Amino acid sequence: MTYKNFAHYVDSLKAFDNRLALTIRPFIKIERLTYKDLRLRAYQAAHYLSSEGVASGQRILVIGLNSPQWVELLLGAQLIGVVVVPVDVRSPIETVHKYAQRTTPKLIFRSTYLLPELDKHYETRLLEALDDLIAEQSVTPPKLDLTGQETAIIVFTSGTTAEPKGVMLSQRNILSNVSGVQQALTINPGWRLLSVLPLSHTYELTGGCLALLSAGASIFYLPRVTSLAIARGLQEYRITTILAVPQLLSLFLERIRQTANDQGRAGVLEAALQLARILPFTLRRQLFHSVHQRLGGHLDMIVTGGAPIPIAVATTWERMGVKTVQGYGLTETSPVLAVNNPEHRRLDSPGKPLSNVKLRIANNDHEIQVKGPNVFSMYWHDAAATRAAFTYDGWFRTGDIGRLDHGWLQIQGRSKFAIVLSSGLKVFPEDVELVADKHPALKAVCVVGVTQSDGEAVEAVVISERSDRTITAAIAQINAQLESFQHISIWERWPETDFPRTRLLKTDRRAVQQWANASLTAETVPVETTQTIATVDPILHILRLSLGQPKVRIKESDRLADLGLDSLRRLTVVSLIEEQLGVTIAESHLNQTTTVATLRHLVKKGAPAESPAPHPVWPFYPQVRIIGNIARETLVRCFLRLWVRQRSEGIEHLRTVTGPAIFIFNHVDGFDAPVVYKALPWRIRRRLAVAQADDVMRAHKILAFATRLGYAAFNFARVEPFTPSLEYTGRLVDQGYSIALAPEGKLSATGKLLPFKSGIGLLAVELGIPVVPMKTIGLYGTVPLHKSWPVKRSQVTVRIGQPLRFNKGTSYDQATQQLRQAMQQL
What we know:
There is one protein chain. By secondary structure, this protein is α/β, with parallel strands linked by helices. The protein contains 29 helices and 32 strands. About 45% of the residues are buried.
């Protein structure tokens, strides 16, 4: 489909209105947007930006983690011709200042914990708060006639060797690329994509977002992109497709091999890979059933770009029954130029040019040059760079060297990294690496040119655990497969476990080349990489963010509890460590006595996350719920009538409660949950789950069985770690269940209301559903039927209060106190 502008694009999403578009679980509650939700929120975002005085042609800067709000803001901005300047979330404050000074944005949108110091210098908004900000805006399309030539985004290149250039992509550029990608990949509504690359890069923005939405597919975002989060996402969301960079696939494979090795099955894995060579594709998935189960059981295809994928890596994935489809492009081309079709693919090529792209190979230096509606027209305020980017007859110079093989593109390397020998011949590193990557003695290799008196020499910088003699023999075997002028003449070991990486996880060849030349000349040359270097102590920075006190003094001997980090704020610490440092720490490793020094040690060690015991699933089977409901409404109801005479007040307050809600009650008796349950109308209690103390459920198996059967009870932790219980509560709400719980956390010995645990405030704020306070009067001090016979029936009143809702910005402590006050007033 060809789109005139983004208004046309967004309007076309009507065709998928009832389908699932975007999903994320930012903390304990899952957020799902249908295509209709997304479309209407895009309209609201457009009206909001207009109300803030942002006009067509003006700019907003976005530095945020992938989320539905990111997409809403992007589409809303495009609908009124506002230019989006996306910035990588790992960019240091100096870089953001530089981009802001060059583009003068009217507003900056940032994720909550990213660069809060920006608030002092610019007009900022929190990306997570976008839905609240736009809530009162109109859901009608903005009345603005756009031509499609309007600038949509300005993306700054990494600037490894020079000042970053701002690539200006128009709406027409991006949308023509969306059409080309959709046609080449034949995307369909059944695709379920896990987004693991940043939306600040055009690779993910076009290929992993806009192209999929144009076909009605579903996209799933992760609040933190770590190996653990990816593994959970694959399982939870039944992912069929991932858009990735080759390095990520290599890391996945390494993990699979390590798991097999730990289980003593490394030989079995290698034998299976050899057997898979002769098997049809469908049988390969059966052969590697256990691997696919760890990948969620549905992963069918991985689309790669950003760098050439080693054939050995691609071949291994193919043998395991996962299609490996690679493509090629640049930011300046929106970005895709060529891509393989899933049904007609070659592992040694990034594919054929898109149908709406013209591609030629220059006669003099074999540079790949392109024309097409997806090619940008200029760099931001840089006429000289713009002129240098195009040939005299208007073709964009990619700077890559390649050739066409019966229509299939072959990339030989970047012209700036071509190694010029003394003979004048050029060696392209990728040609050599294509052979070297296959050798088992080398874990990784980066080929660079090192300067000598008469020209450059080909050097292989290797990562390997094998001996020098073995590596030397491997280099000889590699050279035997190369043309004589391509031979590796020098090799060195890289001193770390991995090469420096760019933000798209490509090997930073420039940094490796600088190191190689410095080691040969024995001169100290600083290695520059595009990785972010923290300018402050990251641990102290995270603690201050969690406390909300950017200048508080923290000593290594300080305990987390002494700093004011209670159990809930420690959850924030764990999340930020995983998000910003890429280290997963089990929540149970942190407690009141943990010191800053201990925390630092845990981060360095990378303490593994502990898998909590799974919650039983049988209580929520439809057949079990039918049996449980019948038992509760007959036998248990008769039991209660013998024990108490019960009446309810305030039942009219429940008329506005039409979906899942949280019902909180005062805990004065071990059997007060059935009384509270009975006070609610059938439409609510038929899908009501009761939170029961984890320690009680474990200690009393018969009671646990009975409450699970009759009341859909589930274990809720009263001591750390709390996260599994909170997350499980969120999942039940996602399934349409209301929750009943006693926020005091323990039985009141006097009948008076105890302080509430702050976890109820967290649930109320994060789940965003109504919280209904309920108070039992007359139940305290009664003698349960099973303790005495005959017994005088007690008169019990259950008072139901007004439902309360809390905005996202409400503090957990504030919500907790308001709920306690509401119950106290009943």
